[in-house]
Amino acid sequence: MVWATIFLAQEMILRNKIVLLHxxxxxxxxxxxxxxxxxKKDLEKSRLKKREEKQQKMLERKASGKKSDFExxxxxxxxxxxxxxxxxxxxxxxxxxxxxxxxxVPKREKDDPNAIRTGRIEFFNTTKGFGFIKETKxxxxxxxxxxxxxxxxxxxDTVTFDLERGIKGMNAVRVKKV
Length: 178
Hints:
By secondary structure, the chain is α+β, with helices and mostly antiparallel strands.
């Protein structure tokens, strides 16, 4: 037994190590320090501040005694279209027939496509040979090409014209000054 202990001691000396049976952890200045930087500390402070503010707001809401029931969340629209807290007055209620409500573009009256129309030249480019006529009755604009003119025209002239279907829509043809 003694011989085995001496052998182990010699082996440990050869390795230049001293082994303690129960080594204790020693604090050393060479150990790693906390990795908390200024930015991390600042973020943690802001998180704590937000949490405290949230707690404070919650306590204020509880202390104020306001009810948060369904009725307090409702909003109403008055007869002028404004949003209000109180329900509208039932005496001001108007009866509306649902069949009178038109959704979309109202239907156009059928016009005679061969009828002679009147309008005013809104724009005309003489160098390129085209322009637009705005009809006086409906306010619609129609394309006009120099080939569809019977007389020379310029902007703001009042003219009469017919319509023909072109490649991109209705075109004014047979255009004359009034």
